[in-house]
Design a protein that fits this description.
about 625 residues, Rossmann fold, Toxin ADP-ribosyltransferase, Chain A, domain 1, 6-stranded mixed sheet, 4-stranded parallel sheet, 15 strands
Amino acid sequence: MLHTIDDDFSQDVNLQNQKPNAESVLSSKNQNLLGIWYCDEDVTDDVFDKVRQHLYKTFIYAQIFTNQLGFNKYLAHSIIVENVFVIITGEDARNLYHIVRKRPQCRGVYEYQTILDTVSSSSAYIDIEKLFEKINDDIQHYTNIQESPSCETNEEERCHRLAMPLSLSVFNSNGSENSFRYWSKVSLEFYRFQMLTRILTKIQFDHSLSLDEMIRECRLHYCGNKNEISKIDNLKEKYSPALAIWYYTCDMCLFRMVGRAFRSQDFENIFKFRRYIIDLHGELVKEATACTPQQTKLYRGKQLSRLVLQQLKDNEGALISINGFLSTTKNQNLAIHFACADTHRHGYESVIFEVAINEPIISCPNADISALSQFGDGESEILFSFGSVWRIDSVIHSTNNSLWTVKLTFCNKLDSDLAKKFHELSDNNAFLELGMVLYELAQHSKAKEFYYRILQEKNLTNDIRSTLHYRIASINIEDHEYYQALQNLQEAEKLTPSMMTTTTSKSGPSQLLYTNSTIPSCRHILNNMGVAYYKINKCRTALEYFEKALAIEGSDSLSKAMVEDNIGMLYFSEGKYQLALEHLRNACKLAQDNSYLPKFKKHFDTVKEHVAETCT
């Protein structure tokens, strides 16, 4: 423990990361919760984004349906997860409410409406914050929140590497939208980890410093365990990259700590073990062959949470990424042993992964490590490097032996949508994309941490540095951190050419619109500075920045429309209605045939109606 000292109190800071994957409520205590949202086509983009981000913060796994037929079909099938919470938005909410209540796993059904005319009962929610407060209260009711947080960790310490918990991500493209905002949570997580694998294999780092950082983390985790600390000290003294595979098979901290870091899906945790991860990957590259193995079926046995099994079942035919190194065996009986079919564990199911290899593996280093293992040939182990991609062929339950069988086939080629995205990425853009994925997953703090870490790199261009500061500022504004936003926007302004323009933008949740562009233009930066100044009640300064943004030349009519709308709403807030109407009218003209036109027109009509009423 270290102690921080504030003005009148001190507080402990635990150096050990005790909360892997902490973005989801109660995620470390119960992984048996499923969130579902059905909404009709009348839901606006802003509402869709807000509800989606709340879902991703609240549930590890969430499903969103905009088609009633698909929603009904999903509910009609067998649901593996024990606790299901359903939100319904749209005209048919009351009818669907009664259908959903009949599901035995349904713990809560909530009507949420954004259009007052569609509210069908007094219990309907129109405030998203109050809705999710109620959902979180209900989750607490149906979850054993007294479960010991060390339970899973203790199990990991006893676990064989062939039965270690897995971190999985699924990609299931809808084939219609390329923007991240339309991707499901599981697809975003898949893409995030595939991005991370590319960054880790290319990043340059100091070998000595990275080894020291890894060893420090191991010592902190095993503080009080004399036996493990002795092994760690010996590892520090005699560490050799050439022995990376042998270390992985030893009964010591490395394979457990690396697996734990990967399961956290946190870049900072994974980055601490970059030295060993890259060394193990490198040794697998040396041992790997590009020929089809003699045995085309491999196995892995494990007890999986019902939530993970639900994700696999829901995504048959989709791609799955193993977020870490994958140990498999040629010995099916050994895998069945590790599946523990005769051991009951609440909320878990015994699963056999049957993995098929039908072509030469060229995209992921793998090797038969039996000859390099501390245990020799007894385990017949084939080890795959991190980020291997498979297709989910089927998920079948056998009533004879209470085992689930998940059949996977190795994939050398990614989905065409993914392949195109990766092909277009430069190394710098990979950093920016990963941060954007974290943002879309509602992991704002992690996105900011990641951007700040990248800013420490010495070889970044001014464009990239400007974009990083701009992205951080955009998150600051959403999180109501307006002074921090101004600091980052000022840094971005210094690095941005004054005439730079762009055509990509996105609105934020506030009444005044701010832009969250792919690459920031001077207009975007100045506009967002105006929004931040307005939020801290410096309206005159805000107006100055809006006018500067408006004066920037360029053909991007949408960003100009946003600035006009912001000026109009600022004038309206100050009671200058004619000036407000003038700028709001300009915004509507500039946004013709754009999805933002209804928002701008609503502002214009509201002010126009108010002016008409005051004149009569």
